[in-house]
Amino acid sequence: MGAVQPSSRPDKEKIRNPEGLGAELLETLVKMAPTKEEELKLKDYRGEISKLGSAERFLKALLDIPFSFKRVDAMLYRANFDAEVNYLRKSFETIEAACQELRNSRLFLKLLEAVLRTGNRMNVGTNRGDAKAFKLDTLLKLADIKGIDGKTTLLHFVVQEIIRSEGAGSDETAQNHLDTMQHKEKNDNVQKQDLRIVAGLGRELASVKKAAGMDSDVLSSYVSKLEVGLDKVRTVLQYENSNTRGKFFEVMKLFLNGAKEEILRVKADEKKALLHVREVTEYFHGDAAKEEAHPFRIFMVVRDFLAVLDQVCKEVGKMRNGVVGSARSFRMSASASLPVLSRYNLRKGESSDEDSSSS
């Protein structure tokens, strides 16, 4: 049993008064809690107190306070409560923001459309040649599909197509520079700017990358831990009687009422966040039930893809002529089927850039 330094020893009044101790010292006290056998020996000790070690004397003094270590548990829970609630709230806010980013990112949706069109172009004449959607898992396969040169991948081609289509919207900017630079130099600058836009998708989906590092089971266990801790506080308050009444019980009663409301709000935030995850999963994958065991997997897929995309953008930027090839110049094995049925649909009425440029 470790000794506590005299300067950090709380007196009996501070144990009775939950305002007087910090979380760090409370954690130390919790670790010092004696076993049942040690507690009985200390309570039954009738010898000279001076013959006990400093830690034993300290514990014996604490044990004179009714339910002292149960009080310490309750005080530690209260000391950590706000930080744990804030962590959960920020986590659920991040998850909701991640869902919004996936649904509303124009560049991400444009990338998905480019992948879909490219896949359909590759599959012309097959039963997969007129797909309307695909699962996000497919994004991770793009870097595995090689061009005829054996070096560039389908993702290189998709990035090039997005840069080209983005550049089509940059004509006004290009026209403003027409009098001060040669056409080729102007075009190169526009392409570099558009490449930076594509490479910046990771910043646009920053919350998605954060959410990918979270675990729904862990967050759920933290919420449950808050509820269990609150039950312990209720249990301690039941020990109150005419002999134990004091500031500890007054403060804890006030805390209990506020904490109950906070936990209800946290649980509501959790429910709303998970509902949004389910909705965005159904939007992109069609059947959220298949992802119930790992509901945040959709964020992990996008995070892993963004890492690959960042590397490909760097490689495309180093290419002299910036030309990768056409969609039909890529080999595709039967096991690497690109389009897969999902609820993600190409917006109606949009013409295919791929069709107009690859013929």
UniProtKB/TrEMBL annotation:
One Pfam family of this protein, by short name?
A: FH2
Which residue ranges does the record assign to the FH2 domain? Answer: 1-335
Q: Name one GO biological process term.
A: actin nucleation
- Gene Ontology terms for molecular function: actin filament binding
Identify its protein family: Belongs to the formin-like family. Class-I subfamily.
By what name is this protein known?
Formin-like protein
Its source organism is Stephania yunnanensis
